Amino acid sequence: MIGGKPQDIIFTSGGTESNNLVIHSVVKHFHEHQTSKEDQGEPRKPHIVTCTVEHDSIRLPLENLVKEQVAAVTFVSVSKASGQAEADDVLAAVRPSTCLVTVMLANNETGVVMPVPEISRRVKALNQRRAASGLPPVLVHTDAAQALGKRRVDVEELGVDFLTVVGHKFYGPRIGALYVRGPGDLTPLHPMLFGGGQERNFRPGTENAAMIAGLGKAAELVVENCEAYEAHMEAVRDYLEDRLEAEFDKRLYLNSRFPGTERLPNTCNFSIRGPKLQGRRVLAQCRTLLASVGAACHSDHQDKPSPVLLSCGIAPDVASNAVRLSVGRSTTRAEVDLVVEDLKQAVARLEAQA
Description:
The protein is α/β, with parallel strands linked by helices.
């Protein structure tokens, strides 16, 4: 599914563990590299470059490392024109002490696809110059959770050292995996857990064989059908956006549409302008639609605008009204019609309230 080798896969409990394992590994490797040198000065902190719209399983461990003064982190702002972390900005943030660049493959709220292949190519060229100066290479990680099953993903084309896999994002079980290019040999990988030695000691603990088999079957279906899945989702998502525009006209703002920027085929993030139409309130009035106001795992934000949308330049009052809809492999146009009618009635009820 991802174009890698079997020996480059480590099974984990999910995306959160995979992402944390990458961060843990590069920080530990940096410190080992530092102590192996005879450095007379103050030991340097490892530095990591990421972007402002990453999933919490990247953002929060990095913020915690900063809080504990274990590492330094640069959060590169995404472009307000494209919604992307631009390669120029990512490369400009690299320092001599940088050990990792981690940029998601596609954003989970907007569906925007990040320029990971370009970032990887430029980091690789930079690493050649760093080697000549005696500096260690910068590793590249991408969290591909949101992209898998919705577009073709190939680790060779991406040029990454690490890639996070999350099963339930492509109709598999709730289990994860981490691609590592030559784990322990070409690419450093240090366990966070110690135990029975499973997964070549990189991730000990008895493997969940049934879920791993399910993950393999889900990946097999993606390999066989990805183009058909992608075409279907894109057609239904476009129909959804056309119907929303027809129903709400100039009141509708498509938060996930950036001219000229590639996005996932399944994601629609929109706002219906109006003082009473915060996304949470609209969804509470819906009778058949179940959706989220941002990332599905952030249930505590309530009416606060999504930090991801604010980072993308969406105005706070518009971002507060955001609703994120996802279409799937079996979503029909008839279901889209039901959803749009449901939203229309929900908005009418809210606006009729005194």
